[in-house]
């Protein structure tokens, strides 16, 4: 849906049109959920946060003055809510980049399951998403949100700075610091950005299962609802690594993530919280 359409829906919703409000919330729930999922690293935590954000969007819609695009305003509300939400178990379990990198190094198995049967291909995909989300959790919350907006979502520094409530210079500084942290993890390690590197998703399956990060019987990302299949474009990532910078190449990994849809439960919770407002 175009920015103009979202802005018009927001205007009508603020004027009391419940049908427009329902369409607006149904449209924005997916990008809000994806932002929360990247920020918090776990679907259950993202569902809780998304509900809180969407209810806040509904109840504060009157403060949207149309001076920026509606999605920019919505992301600003989402970021403020995410920054003050309590730390959950998954976020708290990732301490820093050095500890996370050491975990990856220690977890490498001799056997690489990457190209093997379908079950292991699914688990490889699960490892990739879990690992890249874990990398995000290595960043402090301010750096994490600046990186998600700037690199993972590809927003210009003007928009990302507006959402974060900081200057363009501060956004660029945060982004540079976040990229540097990413480099300490992926340089000489991640096989996604350089085929010569030793770490492969298939070599992390056994240790991830042992650590409880993966559940063979209930993979949380492989069976997650999506708006499209979102296959990883390895060739694009490798070209980016060769031509640009490892941290920028890593942003291609995030941009090639599956387009996870907000689970139906998010919409049902919001409807339950605001029964008199949604048509």
Walkthrough of the structure:
There is one protein chain. By secondary structure, this protein is mainly α. The mean pLDDT is 86.
Task: Describe this protein with a few key phrases.
single chain, 279 residues, mainly alpha, 14 helices
What would you say about this model in short?
By secondary structure, the protein is mostly helical.
> Could you estimate the helical fraction of the residues in percent?
55-70%
Instruction: Characterize the overall form.
Output: globular
Strand content: under 5%
Report the order of strands and helices.
HHHHHHHHHHHHHH
Rg calc: 19 Å
Q: Give a count of the beta strands, DSSP E runs of length 2 or more.
A: 0
Detail the topology: elements first, then pairings.
Blueprint: H1 3-14, H2 18-40, H3 43-59, H4 70-84, H5 89-93, H6 97-106, H7 118-137, H8 141-152, H9 157-164, H10 168-186, H11 205-210, H12 234-243, H13 246-255, H14 264-273
Helix pairs in contact: 1-2, 2-3, 2-4, 3-4, 3-14, 4-9, 6-10, 8-9, 8-10, 9-10, 10-13, 12-13
